[in-house]
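How a chain folds remains the central question behind the approach discussed here. In the encoding step, the backbone of a single protein was reduced to a row of integers, each denoting a local shape. We regard such an encoding as a compact summary of how the chain folds. The sequence in question and its structure tokens are set out directly beneath this paragraph:

___
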Amino acid sequence: MTDDLFAVTPDPSRPARPSRVCRRHGWYGIALGDRIITACRRCGRVRDDAKVRRGRTNRSRGNAIERDVAKALGMRRVGQYGGPDDARGSLFAAQVKSGKSYPERLHTWLKAVPVDAGQVAILVITDAPGPGHRRRGLVVLDLADWRDLHGEEKP
């Protein structure tokens, strides 16, 4: 009788949450006729080889870009150790991002700045947070211009 008092009835307005997926799948092969399907032994998820290949190539591309930027700037690549910085030099630490996050709008504004010989175009972006808050600002330079100004010489 007391069990009925504490029985939980599901609320129809709140659907059940899906079960969590594995943090790290344990893959094994299942023979299904003439083909083999790879699935996780813990959660039963079927492995999508196209997704795996896409993930590997994207990671390889990102690592190659990190190496190229570190080499171009005369820095040492440290991104493979999992920290928040990807390259380090004696004066600067860098985080390298690539892909869809490239700001075309900023690039257009930067390239529209007229410069004379010996000048470097910069783009300054600020916000206007209102009274009582400090204004923030960013300076944007082209990578080649920054390298020419601050790139470190290799020993």
Summary: Helices lie at 2-5, 49-72, 104-111, 143-150. The mean pLDDT is 86.
